[in-house]
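Researcher: Next entry in the queue.
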Amino acid sequence: MKKIFVILCLLSYSLCIEAGSPFRMGSNARGIALSNSLIANYSSGFNAFGNPALLNEIKNKEYGISMFNMSLDRSIQTFSFSMPLPPTATLGLSLFRASTNDITGYDELGNPSGSSYSTSESFAMVSFARKFNKLSVGINLKLYRSELADGVEADGIGFDIGVCFDIANTFFTEDIVLSHKIGLKLSNIASEYNWSFDYNNFKQQYEEEHSMIISFGSSSLIDVKNGELFILTQIDIFDQNKSDFKMGFEYKLNHLAQPFYFRVGSKRMNNNDFTDYNFTFGFGIPIKLENFDLVFDYAVDPGLMNQGVSHIISFAFLN
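Model: Structure for this entry, 319 residues:
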């Protein structure tokens, strides 16, 4: 049992031990570069992760794959598939896996045992969305799996519900158009882990709830003659003493032979009396191929509290 306790202490540093916290790190490079402020903004190949209601933005089948090369021996892999269900619905299937490797083992006296451990948290997700005029509604059903050392494991289920609303365009001049969207999402509704492990030859079980998150945000597109500027804002509320405020800026150069996206993001984290900031950046390149469109995205996350730099690469395939 002491080994389990040590593992949990180490995880609190590497993956933030609160149930399901690795899932908040983001699912793709564009999201990371924009501080995951995508509650009201379409993101090719990964809409179900940000807000299931945004699935209704797709026109044809979409695939998304991400690989996170992170500090502290952490890694994340994601996969997503979505397809329209005419005339007004959309279906999505997604996978998310976060892991930490080479966690040093200790004996009962606190001395290194020479062994190492690995741990992972993952979920499989089915998403469904429906459009009603300018209002879109979506739902995620998630099946969780968490594994620690020595046969300590957990399963669980959870739900997300999201909505997105289009606001009418505003025409300032013939060359400048401003459009808005607002989004709302309730994450981890009735979500929990059911832990199971052996201790002193007895089967132990207990439940651990995921914190429900209320997210609200907006997306504003300023469309000018030679480019497009997205301004994204989002607030995530965990409880009365914990919240994140996020902003993202994305500029698309339209006058180049090859379109190019520049992205920066900032996040302000409030946790009781503790406040911290994180800044991210990245870029994206859409590439037209013969049978499909490919979107390549890259992001850099400098990390918090000297945890080290993480690099994220994503690919979206659009039929």
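Model: The first strand starts at residue 62 and ends at 69.
Researcher: Noted, moving on.
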